[in-house]
Design a protein that fits this description.
heterodimer, A: alpha+beta, Alpha-Beta Plaits, 10 strands, globular, B: 389 residues, mainly alpha
Chain lengths: 258, 389
């Protein structure tokens, strides 16, 4: 935990440096008026891993922290708030039964039963969404991040059928009017494409931790699953953790400490 | 030969106009969908495929079913099918065109469709589905057109047609197998995750497709002087009966595996379809209707005496078509997505605009089929020395 705080402070320093740097002129006045855009210096020191993974310490979450974490993601990424069954979400909650369906839980301990669990893309080692995508619009990069090229997506939604975790959302309509405060530092999506959590690939490239991890105040731990000294590996060595639906053979990268 | 499509009775042009009118109305709704997105459908985050993809799947079966004529005719030289074969091939063309249409209306960014070619990804079954469907379209168009042209010119078809025909026989199986693989390889969708899905698809295709063909041919017989011949009708209805028996049998295999193993993942979608899941019973009327129609059609088709009686055959075939359509066109897709990955149910029924847009594609198929069959029937009438109608 010590090391993750140090990482955080280091990253905060880097980000402050970024904020003080100049903005990109071609984006016009709208961009000028908003927060300063990152420049090349921000990307000078990315943090990298062989395989990014996340550990969620579920006991540390209360409703306020959950709301804060979800908000940090959804505002940063311009995730629209669309009511009803055509909603879009990158990170959200379910109760135990909806989260760990393959456990078929009965007689759960009260604490675990009434807890809310944060759900997001698992950034699987062998992701079915990547396997089925006919255009490689969804792909896995060399750091184990399952990410998307929204301009290549044809909107066939095969990835949504492929994902056993329900992590993907489709833009059934133009999302723009459902975005309350547009973050001009991140593109919003267009009608007709699929989207999901990216483990904040754009933050990692700037040497920053993902938004949710930053907002969680240590309740979410992020690091390299291949590195035995990484924070995720250290915490997994200490505490018993579950992954969702492991029998699907996808090797999810999100671990839950109960 | 194409000029034969340009002359015809008021009834022929009336039919074409009717199809064009439906296309126009459906096209209007499609413009709305292009403008507003798939929000006008009943689809959701949880049930992200629906009526369009289901119709696509059903039509792949109809397209593949032409092989039920082509195989006996070319492999076993079964001459009774000589008058029907071109009708089957042309129905396959219309069906594949509908399949492609249903895919186009389903995707969220149709203008990026060619990304599937530009960034072709052999690891995706969708890529292969595109390959086999377009290949099948070309095969049937070339084979059908060339054979009909030769027949019209009273010469035997060129020798290069034969290898294409043999290819098309294997290809027909491939289109529905690959379409089944779209579904059967997804780790989280239990209703589809079954090795027998491709076999089920083929068996349901081989009873429903020939039934549609036979019904349409009986209609053509009524409206024109075309007669496919009694023996052909008899043989094809026997094929239909066997295929429907196999279809029902394969489904019962699913039921056994799911319920004897008692594994929830396998049972839940079947329960959802037939008795509802956690109070969501909206699919059960469709599925029990399908079961009733399917079994009744079998009851009527199995005794040869009844099957050979046109007054029983026709309603039995209609029941079979509706039953298999409900199974594949309504139940199959929703059950794959239900319950969702969180063991919950999001209901899905197509909306009015969704149905109208699908109807547009059916009208396209009807238009293509009418024109192609008109040409085939005129050519036959001319060669046989009778003026067609």
């Amino acid at each position: 935990m010590q090391s993750s705080r140090r990482d955080f402070l280091k990253l905060a320093g880097v980000s402050a440096l970024g904020l003080s740097a100049g903005t990109l002129g071609f984006l016009g006045e709208g961009a000028q008026a908003a927060d300063a855009l990152p420049t090349a210096t921000n990307f000078a020191k990315p943090i990298t891993a062989k395989r990014w993974a996340m550990v969620i310490d579920t006991a540390k979450f209360d409703d306020a922290l959950i709301a804060k974490v979800i908000d940090s993601c959804h505002t940063a990424h311009n995730v629209p708030t669309i009511p009803g069954k055509q909603e879009i979400k990158w990170i959200w909650t379910e109760e135990f039964h909806g989260t760990f369906t393959t456990e078929r839980p009965v007689h759960l301990a009260d604490a675990q039963e009434h807890r809310k669990y944060l759900l997001l893309c698992n950034h699987c080692e062998s992701p079915p969404c990547v396997r089925v995508c006919p255009t490689k619009a969804t792909f896995k990069n060399n750091e184990g991040l399952v990410i998307m090229d929204y301009h290549r997506c044809i909107g066939c939604r095969y990835c949504m059928a492929g994902c056993p975790y329900g992590a993907r959302s489709f833009n059934f309509q133009d999302p723009e009017k459902f975005i309350k405060n547009m973050n001009l530092q991140y593109p919003h999506r267009t009608r007709g494409v699929v989207e999901k959590c990216t483990f904040c690939v754009e933050k990692l490239a700037q040497g920053l931790m993902p938004n949710c991890v930053q907002a969680s105040g240590g309740a979410m731990v992020f690091g390299d699953l291949q590195d035995p000294n990484s924070p995720v590996r250290k915490i997994l060595k200490e505490k018993f953790a579950l992954r969702r639906n492991p029998s699907a053979g996808t090797e999810p990268g999100v671990f839950y400490i109960l | 030969m194409i000029e034969k499509a340009l002359k015809g009775s008021p009834r022929y042009f009336g039919a074409l106009m009717a199809f064009l009118a439906i296309m126009g109305i459906g096209g209007g709704f499609y413009l709305v969908q292009l403008n507003q997105g798939l929000m006008i459908t009943g689809l959701s985050r949880d049930v992200s495929w629906g009526f369009y993809i289901a119709q696509f799947t059903y039509m792949v079966g109809v397209a593949a079913s032409a092989v039920m004529l082509v195989l006996p005719y070319y492999f076993h030289h079964y001459k009774a099918y000589s008058k029907m074969i071109i009708m089957g091939e042309f129905l396959a063309i219309a069906a594949v065109i509908m399949c492609l249409g249903f895919i186009v209306i389903d995707i969220g960014q149709p203008q990026r469709m060619l990304n599937v070619l530009i960034n072709s990804t052999p690891g995706s079954v969708l890529f292969w589905d595109m390959v086999v469907l377009n290949g099948y379209l070309v095969l049937n168009a070339v084979i059908g057109w060339t054979s009909l042209m030769s027949y019209w010119k009273r010469v035997s078809p060129p020798t290069w047609v034969k290898p294409l025909v043999y290819t098309s026989i294997v290809w027909a199986f491939s289109i529905h197998t690959v379409t089944a693989f779209l579904y059967a390889g997804l780790p989280g969708r239990h209703y589809w995750l079954t090795a027998i899905l491709a076999a089920r698809f083929l068996s349901s295709a081989f009873c429903s497709g020939p039934s549609i063909l036979l019904l349409l041919m009986l209609l053509a017989k009524k409206l024109t002087k075309f007669d496919p011949g009694n023996e052909a009708i008899k043989s094809l209805s026997t094929t239909i009966t066997y295929a429907m028996c196999v279809n029902v049998f394969f489904f019962l295999l699913e039921v056994f595996t799911a319920f004897y193993s008692n594994m929830p993942g396998h049972m839940d979608p079947i329960l959802f379809l037939f008795s509802g899941f956690e109070g969501h019973t909206y699919m059960t009327p469709f599925m029990w209707t399908a079961a009733f129609l399917g079994l009744t059609s079998l009851f009527l088709l199995i005794p040869p005496k009844w099957r050979e009686n046109r007054d029983i055959l026709v309603p039995a075939l209609i029941m079979l078509v509706i039953g298999t359509w409900l199974d594949k066109g309504m139940g199959l897709i929703a059950a794959g997505f239900t319950p969702n990955p969180f063991e919950k149910v999001t209901e899905y029924l197509p909306t009015g605009p969704e149905l109208m847009i699908a109807l547009m594609i059916y009208a396209v198929g009807g238009f293509v089929l009418t024109v192609l069959w008109k040409i085939a029937l005129e050519v036959r009438a001319e060669v046989e020395g009778e003026p067609g109608k």
